[in-house]
Amino acid sequence: MRPAAPRILVVEHEDDAPAAWFGQWLRDAGAELDVRRPYRSEALPADPADHDALLVLGGEMGATDDHVPWIAPTRALVAAAARDGVPTLGICLGLQLCAVALGGAVARNPLGQQMGVLDVGWAAGAADDPLMGGVVGAARAVHWNNDVVTALPDGARVLARAPGGEVQAARLAETVWGVQLHPEVDEHVVAAWAPGAREVHGDAAVDDALARVAAARDELHASWRPLAEALVGLAGAQPPAS
Questions:
Q1: Residue environment code for 213-239, b if the CB has 16+ CB neighbours within 10 A, otherwise e
Q2: Averaged pLDDT, 143-153
Q3: What is the value of pTM for the model shown?
Q4: Which residues are designated catalytic?
């Protein structure tokens, strides 16, 4: 009998911040996605017991913006996943939520907004990481964020730093990882995020950033697909979800 597909819970915070490429890569690798959109009043589970992995996506809100009704429950979900050993990946806001949920801290980046395609500064030994090891050949990635992780949870390990020194990827707990970069997006997704940046940086800077994302499309797609495949691999190695 064919084993059941790994079931991955996806927390989406906004219509214009979908799983995009990453969701398709997960499906291509054999996963079944359970996408929850709490901004549409879709309930989040209290724990990930019915899932084999957890993916927390990005969004414009902050990791401690508890006036947003689902932010604290998302942190609680991450904490439960860490407790239960469920493989978890946070992307951008997702990284920040994972960090805060496990005892770290997040603040506005004093160096200003990260925007466009930036170099990835892999740490020594990152190639040995069970989730991130397969993408250490990725030289660049898309960034589009104002907040950054300023303190990691106890025992966490930085796997990559951005050119300005900001945490770019980290293993936050035994089965919890996060990336500040956006492996899931192409120029079409990022274009929806541009209006707010235009108010800060002006049209020329934002248009240049969008053009660089478009020019790097094929490179980014090839570089970051293995991350989704690795998450499915970890999910499939877990005891089947109930």
A1: beebeeebeebbbbbbbbbbbbbbebe
A2: 97
A3: 0.96
A4: 92, 182, 184
